[in-house]
């Protein structure tokens, strides 16, 4: 176990077990992860309020304050954790988290990535629930290099969970949501076919052809963590989902042009859906 994980373990076990022992709740644990520490803090406060926990949640503490690599907050049976950007960053956090879940003897854990993404051929603001993560060649797999070998891992997400989330989304007004493939890339610019990075080695026509091919391969959004997230959760037997809002339609352009207010509302959509889902699971819905 790494030093970061070891130093967290005792404290984490204490807080988690307290949550699990709450008589009003089932012994279910929800772990929600997303890129930005601020967004995951906001989510922790939001879910604290949605679950009707004591106080307004604004004094919530970062359990991982000892390191600035990621933040972790706990609201009742929900852990809210940031993972930074990209596959290497989320993969380190997941290794440490999964060890913590194991040592804390957690059972019935549902883990959901709530993030942002670029859409393909769908209205910005649409929430995409991933059925399977694909790589930049549209292959449903994650390649993990181990020693000098490439190990291919399955990137299937939990189908029943995806369908439950879709059903839940239908109960929220004006909430465009669909299930589709998510393409996971190693880069935001050239890796996602953007023409507006510091480097660009292809034409607008080549970019459009690539994104059209992705659409035909049933890719509906692009982000940077889903493949390793799906692969690790699948191997460790964790029920997992990826729920990302689309900030733009990549068939229309590369730049995110909506106002700050609109983007803030978009980013709240996965949080709103997951809050409604968690409340339902805890049988708190009226
Ligand atoms: O969870 P977030 O919204 O941070 O995820 C996406 C994918 C990349 O990490 C990042 C790129 O802007 O946003
Ligand atoms: O286009 C986008 C938007 C958010 N995140 C991505 O990875 N790509």
Automatic annotation (TrEMBL):
Give the enzyme's EC designation. 2.4.2.3
- Keyword match Hydrolase: no
> Which UniProt key words apply to this protein?
Glycosyltransferase, Transferase
Database matches in InterPro entries: Nucleoside_phosphorylase_CS, Nucleoside_phosphorylase_d, Nucleoside_phosphorylase_sf, Uridine_phosphorylase_euk
Keyword Glycosyltransferase assigned to the entry: answer is: yes
Name the job this protein performs.
Catalyzes the reversible phosphorylytic cleavage of uridine to uracil and ribose-1-phosphate which can then be utilized as carbon and energy sources or in the rescue of pyrimidine bases for nucleotide synthesis. Shows broad substrate specificity and can also accept deoxyuridine and other analogous compounds.
UniProt lists the family membership as follows: Belongs to the PNP/UDP phosphorylase family.
What is the protein's name according to its record? Uridine phosphorylase
């Amino acid at each position: 176990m790494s030093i970061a994980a070891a130093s967290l373990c005792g404290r984490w076990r204490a807080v988690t077990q307290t949550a699990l022992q709450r008589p009003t709740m089932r012994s279910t644990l929800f772990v929600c992860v997303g890129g930005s520490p601020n967004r995951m803090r906001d989510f922790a406060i939001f879910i604290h309020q949605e679950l009707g926990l004591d106080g307004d949640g604004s004094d919530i503490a970062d359990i991982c304050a000892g390191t600035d690599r990621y933040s972790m907050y706990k609201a009742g049976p929900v852990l809210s954790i940031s993972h930074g950007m990209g596959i290497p960053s989320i993969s380190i956090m997941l290794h440490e988290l999964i060890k913590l879940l194991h040592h804390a003897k957690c059972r019935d854990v549902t883990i959901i990535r709530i993030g942002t993404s670029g859409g393909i051929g769908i209205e910005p603001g649409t929430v995409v629930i991933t059925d399977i993560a694909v790589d930049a060649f549209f292959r449903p797999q994650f390649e993990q290099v181990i020693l000098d070998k490439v190990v291919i891992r399955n990137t299937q997400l939990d189908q029943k969970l995806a369908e439950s989330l879709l059903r839940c989304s239908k109960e929220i007004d004006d909430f465009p949501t669909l299930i589709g493939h998510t393409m996971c890339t190693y880069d935001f610019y050239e890796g996602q076919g953007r023409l507006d990075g510091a480097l660009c080695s292809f034409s607008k026509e080549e970019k459009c052809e690539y994104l059209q091919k992705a659409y035909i391969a049933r890719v509906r959004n692009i982000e940077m963590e889903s493949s390793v997230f799906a692969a690790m959760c699948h191997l460790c037997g964790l029920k997992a989902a990826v729920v990302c809002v689309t900030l733009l339609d990549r068939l229309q352009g590369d730049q995110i042009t909506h106002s700050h207010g609109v983007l803030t509302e978009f980013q709240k959509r996965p949080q709103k859906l997951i809050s409604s889902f968690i409340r339902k699971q805890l049988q708190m819905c009226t």
